[in-house]
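Entry for the shared binder. Reason: the reviewer on the internal report wants the predicted structure included alongside the sequence.
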Amino acid sequence: SMSEALATYGNRPTALLVELYRRWAGSGIGLLITGNVMIDRRALGEPGNVVIEDQADLPTLRQWAAAATSQGAAIWVQLNHPGKQATKGLNAGTLAPSAVPFRADMQALFETPREATQVEIEDIIQRFGRSAAICKAAGFSGVQIHGAHGYLVSQFLSPHHNRRNDQWGGSPENRRRFVLAVLAEIRRQVGPDFPVAIKLNSADFQRGGFSEDESLATMLALVDAGIDLIEISGGTYEDPAMSGTLAATSKASTIAREAYFLEFAEQARASLKVPLMVTGGFRSAAGMNAALRSGALDVIGLARLLAIDPEAPAALLRGQDSRHQVRPIKTGIPAIDRLGVMEIFWYTLQLRRIAEGGDPRPGESGRWAFLKSVMKSGWGTLQTRRLRAKA
């Protein structure tokens, strides 16, 4: 799953998404998970997010789902609420479990959120369920709750972000209450046989944040509640392990095994019988097959590789490596590179090229991609706010 930013600035799905997923599905891939689909038009993560909160876009959603399923691939919609992780100016305001600001060097980009009320929490839970039900009606194969990378579900789980003293915080059990309520509401609205997965951090990699012990306890609770698959990832916008920064500090043994979160998956496998998926760090067919043979996971997750080589699954299924290799994307501007934003900006440009019927440019300059993306994001924010004001 990667954030495509291919919706209209009114947050409606487009033919570009249909084309992008049609091309990926033709590669022989087994399961496609969409990028962030938001459950509330008032809470966007970035301009161009798809929002599913009613059935107004059901015809296009059906085309999007069929682009994958007609070629034999399953397609799950990743449902998300950004919480505090929305750039300044995009939304009228942001909310989170608690009013905890970003670290100092990010406060120019992200505002301090306000604490969500009980009524708002209950509304968000219901919205997750309603969006999932619409996805089922549109013909998607399942849904995934985005509970990782510092978005709202992840914020509720983290003692750093969640400093509440009511039933939604104050203890690990209370911090888990929100995600379990989201799962229960989705299950109530989609029934027992529709797949519901979750993407969950192994850890936040922040001082005082979500730990591996808490992650495992959360996974056990989710399994008891009926989750169908757990995708293991890690990090937040403030410490983006999911974008590859973890590789720089990894042990040699971890790098040799490729996957960033494989050791945690091995620990989780000892306690969990639910299917596990690991995303992040895989580079070669040999590394992927070794991970599968280890028994620590059941599903290999790929993201950035498909943005530079949309036919990569066909080669991997033949036991061959992709003709391209994922590389760090840098602008050469230290203050920008420390933020990790290029792992979003640069790849989003490649997704648009594929969606427009072209090919990605694996050698494209990081600095050029940054400048182009900043201009597009600024324009998108202005258009999004203009459309919201007219609504």
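Summary line for the report: Residues 39 and 127 are 6 Å apart (CA to CA).
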